[in-house]
Design goal:
Elements: E1 2-7, H1 14-23, H2 28-36, E2 43-52, E3 55-64, E4 79-80, E5 86-87, E6 127-128, H3 129-139, H4 144-165, E7 173-174, H5 180-196, E8 200-203, E9 206-207, E10 209-210, E11 212-215, E12 218-221, H6 225-230, E13 236-237, E14 243-244, H7 248-257, E15 260-261, E16 267-276, E17 286-294, E18 297-308, H8 313-325, E19 330-337, E20 343-351, H9 356-366, E21 373-381, E22 383-391, E23 394-403, E24 406-411, H10 413-423, H11 427-434
Parallel strand pairs: 1-8, 8-15, 9-13
Antiparallel strand pairs: 1-17, 2-3, 4-5, 5-11, 6-7, 10-14, 11-12, 16-17, 18-20, 18-21, 19-20, 22-23, 23-24
Length: 435
């Protein structure tokens, strides 16, 4: 299974994700050329080599009408704006905050909030979700699927802003996230995902930073409200870095594309990309993307067994049903010769380690055994997923298993049996017609 794993040890932002994915491309420069040919008004992408903590990666420079957001020297743990609020940041991702204020930037951040910015170089106008849709769907030379992804990411941000401000989604106005540089970041990531076409995208738990964001309206906790809303049901953590490491844009992109969040699966890495922020810290300020072939899964399982020579076949069958219902991974019997030359069976149960107590209780409750043996096994299993296929006989589920260089497909028996009964045919005939 072609798997993309994204590590967010220092959070995530749109430009960093773009840069990391660009490094995975067969022709990174060609991908940048494709981005520049999209037709995003006034936007130009440029790859820049960047080194963080001895690691060489890519910083993606995005200019609008020849200008890039100005960046000035700032302290490691906070910097002040030219008015009565300040944001604490440890690095300059493209940040979006959901506050209403007017200020000049001294860093490269993107803000999603209702406020006026005057950079002294160009002015960013507000845009509604409808207005962004007009730009993306009517003016960008993109595949339909990529346009859908771009708008889905913006919808996540709009929903988060709606919740933060307490106003309907259609009344949300984006600032900077709605400008061409932010459209560029989101579009670039969506196009990169389409170009790489991984079968599965797994994202690490996200480092969101720590501390507060101080603004004219008061002190808000990190992550900011919009980011926190987007990252509901996503594993996140804070740390020693004071600042907002994950932006709403980065959060929405990860939330949209991730099949799941967790540790890196067992996989053979083929390419590794590093997308860099601008500032230098004790920890490498980057997003790491790993593209490779997933090798299936490996885990531990328990084998619980007991010998039975005085249970009826009906009792054993009932016990097997109870064990399956209780969460057993598998249950089977093996014919065996017991003491005093009596024929019997060995009842075997494969279970998760955390289900040990429940399985042992079921074995004692539903069989006549007076002892249960336990062995700890290591399993190597293919990664499995279920897809539903529309057929002339109705929807039929199909289990796809892959890893370790093999792929297998198998239609679910219950669905095949239901189709066979309905059509008055054999299961073999149904399977042949579906294929």
């Amino acid at each position: 299974m072609k798997t993309l794993y994204i590590g967010c040890n220092m959070g995530a932002a749109g430009d960093m994700l773009t840069a990391a994915l660009c490094e995975l491309m067969p022709d990174p420069d060609g991908f940048v050329s494709k981005l520049n040919a999209l037709g995003i008004p006034g936007v130009r992408f440029e790859r820049e080599t960047s080194v963080k903590c001895g690691i060489t990666g890519t910083h993606m420079k995005v200019t609008v009408n020849g200008e890039e957001e100005e960046s000035e020297d700032v302290h490691d743990h906070h910097h002040e704006h030219d008015h009565d609020h300040e944001h604490e940041h440890d690095h300059d991702h493209d940040h979006d905050h959901d506050h209403d204020h007017e200020h000049e930037h001294d860093h490269d951040h993107e803000h999603t909030h209702e406020h006026e910015h005057d950079h002294g170089h160009h002015h960013h106008s507000h845009s509604t979700l409808h207005g962004i849709g007009h730009i993306v769907r009517d003016h960008l030379d993109l595949p339909a699927k990529v346009k859908d992804d771009v708008m889905a990411v913006y919808s996540l941000i709009a929903e988060a802003e709606s919740a933060a401000h307490g106003v309907p989604v259609e009344q949300i106005h984006f600032h900077e996230v709605g400008t061409m540089d932010a459209v560029a970041d989101i579009t670039a990531v969506c196009l990169a995902m389409a170009e790489l076409a991984p079968d599965e995208i797994v994202v690490s738990p996200i480092h969101v930073g720590a501390g507060n964001v101080r603004c004219a309206h008061g002190i808000l906790p990190v992550p900011a409200p919009a980011t926190a809303y987007i990252l509901r049901d996503v594993p996140t953590y804070g740390g020693a870095v004071k600042g907002e490491l994950c932006t709403p844009t980065g959060a929405a992109l990860l939330k949209h594309f991730a099949a799941r969040f967790g540790d890196q699966p067992v996989m053979r890495a083929e390419k590794i990309g590093y997308g860099m922020g601008k500032k230098d810290f004790e920890a490498a300020n980057c997003v790491r993307a790993i593209l490779g072939e997933r090798e299936g899964e490996r885990d531990d399982a328990l084998l619980l067994e007991c010998n039975l020579d005085d249970s009826t076949p009906e009792e054993i069958g009932f016990a097997m049903d109870a064990l399956f219902a209780g969460g057993a991974l598998d249950v089977w019997t093996t014919a065996a010769g017991m003491k005093k030359n009596r024929p019997g069976v060995v009842l075997s149960v494969l279970a998760k380690p955390e289900d040990r107590e429940a399985m042992v209780r079921l074995l004692f409750r539903h069989t006549a055994t007076i002892g249960v043996r336990e062995s700890v096994l290591r399993r190597y299993v293919l990664a499995r997923r279920i897809e539903t296929e529309e057929t002339p006989f109705g929807p039929v589920r199909k289990k796809i298993s892959d890893g370790y260089g093999v792929t297998r497909e198998k239609y679910e028996y219950d669905d095949l049996a239901a189709a066979a009964r309905k059509a008055g045919k054999s299961i073999a005939e149904i399977r042949k017609e579906i294929k």
